[in-house]
Amino acid sequence: MVTTAPTALEAELLALAGSVPDPELPVLTLADLGVVRGVRVLAPGRVDVELTPTYTGCPAIEAMTSDIEQVLHDRGIPEVSVRTVLSPAWSTDDISAEGRRKLAEFGIAPPRSHPADGPIPLSLSIRCPHCGSTDTELLSRFSSTACKALRRCAACREPFDHFKEL
Amino acid sequence: MTATPTPAAAPTPTPAPTSAAASAQAAAPARALPANVAALALGDDALVLSHRLGEWAGHAPVLEEEVALANIALDLLGQARVLLSLAGDEDELAYLREERAFRNLQLVEQPNGDFAHTIARQLYFSTYQTLLYGQLASGESELAPLAAKAVKEVTYHQDHAEQWTLRLGDGTAESHERMRRGLDALWRFTGEMFQPVDGIDVDFEALRESWTASVTAVIERATLSVPDGPQSGAWTAGAGRQGLHTEPFGRMLAEMQHLHRSHPGASW
């Protein structure tokens, strides 16, 4: 973890790393997703980035890593090491308000906020991102990726993904 | 891949636990620190079950379940990678160890059987994993960060298994019977989950009580009965953690390791 206050350069590089689009949900940036934990300049031209996975087995982490390396190389940092950190565990509460808005706009029902630890019962109403109805039903707990569930709207009959609370 | 106890035929007398543990020490990789023993045991559980669930790809009864089982497998594979990396080189450990060096529970290596059989295995294991990781997450060990992350994932696996147990048990006469058969057939592998593991500072007897209460509640709601046989047998359960596995495991490993062994260093 970053222990001292970030320098101006570190803040700039953090913003740059955070601007990388998510490889699976390109409407979101890594900053929207809340997965870039910190950027530290260890020496001139040498930078350490802390990245946390959404799910432990998330296959996008490798693409994220190389994309971050690329933008920082392009900014003139020759040595970039991206480290994966697990603790504290990522939560869907780390997705920014802007990120939630973009998800809904993209047709994915955003995760609800956690009242406490543990998953939220999936039976609670989730709003259809297409027509706004809360009359939706679960089709499958796992959808196109581990982080999403598949639902269907009873009002407009469209199926949609829901970003599961984690 | 030689001389394993055979589950279906020719029951081989199991060595007493102490001598099983002693012979396993000889077969284990060089690192035997308690933390590595723990990471290896849990990492092997996750890796082996991940592989078994991956075998459903292209065979699941409906598309949604194919995707669900693959996603659960992916979660487990991610956990296995972190855990095995704590114990050594993940690829070497996954692809180059012999059967006797694996420390997974015999439960997770059992073949998929029909869908109900797979769900029974999921119910037993995901309940155990959720309870165990929940406790590890609040501890101070090297496993705590992974456990804190993984417990959130496996809670969904447990929910998935519970919903299917209810649906199959309280479904048609055919689904009820199949769910019953799955629960019964795997029951004898459940005792092993509560054997203490070096490096895991958890009260396993209390874990057994919580597990039994949780599984019993689901099974009864599913209009089924908790199997009444022993949770371990003279020649079955209680040996995976010592490196003694059932016959199907050798064949599974042969398939899992074949590519890496035939083409060392192969990558995508």
List the topology elements.
The complex is a heterodimer of chains A (166) and B (268).
Chain A: H1 8-18, H2 30-33, E1 36-43, E2 46-51, H3 60-74, E3 79-84, H4 97-106, E4 108-109, E5 136-140, E6 148-153, E7 159-163
Parallel strand pairs in A: 2-3, 4-7
Antiparallel strand pairs in A: 1-2, 5-6, 6-7
Chain B: H1 17-27, H2 34-54, H3 63-87, H4 90-95, H5 106-109, H6 115-137, H7 144-169, H8 173-187, H9 204-221, H10 247-262
Helix pairs in contact in B: 2-3, 3-7, 6-7, 6-8, 6-9, 7-8
Jot down its keywords.
heterodimer, A: 166 residues, alpha/beta, GMP Synthetase, Chain A, domain 3, 2 domains, 3-stranded mixed sheet, B: 268 residues, mainly alpha, Ferritin, 10 helices, 0% strand, globular, disordered N terminus
Describe the structure concisely for a colleague.
The complex is a heterodimer of chains A (166) and B (268). Helix content of chain A is 24%, strand content 23%. Chain A is built from four helices and seven strands, in the order ααββαβαββββ.
Your description of this structure?
The complex is a heterodimer of chains A (166) and B (268). In chain A, a hairpin with a 2-residue loop joins strand 1 and strand 2 (46-51). By secondary structure, chain A is an alpha/beta fold. Chain A has four helices and seven strands. In chain A, helix 1 crosses helix 3. Chain A has helices spanning 8-18, 30-33, 60-74, 97-106, and strands at residues 36-43, 46-51, 79-84, 108-109, 136-140, 148-153, 159-163. The model of chain A has no long low-confidence stretch (mean pLDDT 89). In chain A, the strands form two sheets. Chain A has a four-stranded mixed β-sheet with strand order 4-7-6-5. A three-stranded mixed β-sheet of chain A has the order 1-2-3. Helices cover 62% and strands 0% of the residues of chain B. Chain B has helices spanning 17-27, 34-54, 63-87, 90-95, 106-109, 115-137, 144-169, 173-187, 204-221, 247-262. Chain B has 268 residues and is an all-alpha fold. Residues 1-30 of chain B have low confidence and may be disordered. Classes of the chains: A alpha/beta (166), B mainly alpha (268).
